[in-house]
Please model this.
Amino acid sequence: MNHLIILPVILPALLAPFIVLAMRHDLLLQRVFSMAGAVALLGIALMLLDEAAGGPPQVYELGNWPAPFGIVLVLDRLSALMVLLTGILAVVVAGYAISSGWDTRGRHFHALLQFQLMGITGAFLTGDIFNLFVFFEVLLIASYGLMLHGGGAARTRAGVQYVVVNLAGSTLFLIAVGIIYGVTGTLNMADLAVKVQHIAPGDEALLRAGGLLLLVVFAVKAALVPIHFWLPGTYANAPAPVAALFAIMTKVGAYSILRVFTLVFGESAGETAWIAADWLLPAALVTLVIGTVGVLGAKALTRLVCFSVVASMGTLLTAISIFTPAATVAALFYLIHSTFATAALFLLADQISMRRGGAGDRLITAPRFAQTGLLAGLFFLAAIAMAGMPPMTGFLGKLLVLDSARASDSMTTIWAVILITSLIAIVGFARAGSVVFWKSASIPGPEEGETTPPLPALPMAAAGAMLAAMVAVAIFAGPVTGYLEATAASLYEPAGYIRAVLGPDMTAAR
Amino acid sequence: MEFLVASGVGSVTAAGVYLVLRGRTFPVIVGLALLSYAVNLFLFATGRLVIDQPPVITDGVTSYTDPLPQALVLTAIVISFGMTAVVVVLALRAYLEAGSDAVDTNVDAEPEDAGDGRPAGGGGASA
Model:
């Protein structure tokens, strides 16, 4: 067994209590260890990606219990990619929180960050559906703490709504897991993929109900219409580095949909094959429209970014819902792009509102502020990336989505919705940019350094790093799509995954 | 016995969904607690209801009771207990800071925010 596979879970799991217990009162030590943990996670993720790219899925049997009796962690190309994204984001978020002083506005930021990372990487690596539930709870309970970091009435209230929505979601998850266990007698995903083929006649309806309930649960996480309402309120009120970290949380939902509905309810599932597709496509298109309308109608910059997150989840889930290898390549490419673009925009919006004094992030004209030119340039780059204009990754991502949609029956609808919403998003971002930067530029601000203390430029490096990552993905789009094509191919040939988990003889015996 | 357990789970779920749809934090929390009780009972039943059977398979035993759902329920109980504690503290803090215990007030007075607490109930209702 390769013990590297469990390190992304173990490392933050040990680091977080260590930070709480040993260095509660020393912020400097907390920062050093948290950053070191994030960098180490990134390093481990790179090694895992290298291992996953080289061969078939690898399995880590916890407690050395063979599947399906014990819980397994599975490393394949998809989970390695998601862990790598988490690692990159962790370094950026930790760096931003430290340099902008967000971690001084409340206690235990770094410990909660590590717990959150543990939950996210665990959810990406696990091969057991109940264990997925447990990791969902780990990442949620850490996210409750992070979301409330810094306190304040508005944030606490938004926090209550966020917690209640997610508790209801967890309840649904348990019901879905219960139904699926009752029908199939297993919770191991690979074993489920085998068992659903031989389901007892008469149980198909129950299995269908269980599968679709799971879709609802993942849709809550992925902010799919009609259960997206929690997202704008939560993300807009969360501290900026936390909102940037939450960019990967919506992707946990998208990842789970992709994993479960290709592996368990995929080609070979008989009656329940591709049950997600019929529901996912219309919901994703409506999500895209609602998100874009929100971008156009938002009255504050952070809120505009929140709605652009909803819109990007719509595009991503549209691509997933086509359920072909080509569309999945497009979806994964867009997923990488959307994670970076979201994080960059949240960090930039925070930097802008910090400098605007009383105007905050509201979309009104306000006196000119320090470093307008630099921030305007960075915002411009992030905005065109999010809206999907060349030369950033958003353009390539949408191009891939459109190209792969040609195979779909609803090609005209998908093309029309994506192209029109892209135009509206461009208008929305242009309006925000012109109000915040152009119209405000003519209003003379206070002399720099006189009334407002100069702010450090280092936090902008974090947003810049996200933009640089997008540019790098756009430049190396060839190798990246090559990796994603192999990923998608293995998702639609789940035999390799099942054989890796259950062993060759187990598969043959069933 | 199946009918009793099923109607018990059903009525507790119905009560939970009704309470979650209320507008104030206390009924919502009680509703979430009821929902988690219903789910725990339901998870028990997924191993099928049998009486006086051994929980562990040994040679010669043809009928047994499934021990796995009990492990699942134990995990679910621990998690839902912790989550309930979190949401109680959070609701108290929100009440003390904002001076109102309504769940669905506009967080920052924007129209699209109205009814943010409701979709939770909507999600629960579809169960």
Remarks:
- Residues 108-127 of chain B have pLDDT under 50 and may be disordered.
- DSSP finds four helices and no strands in chain B.
- The two ends of chain B are 22 Å apart (CA to CA).
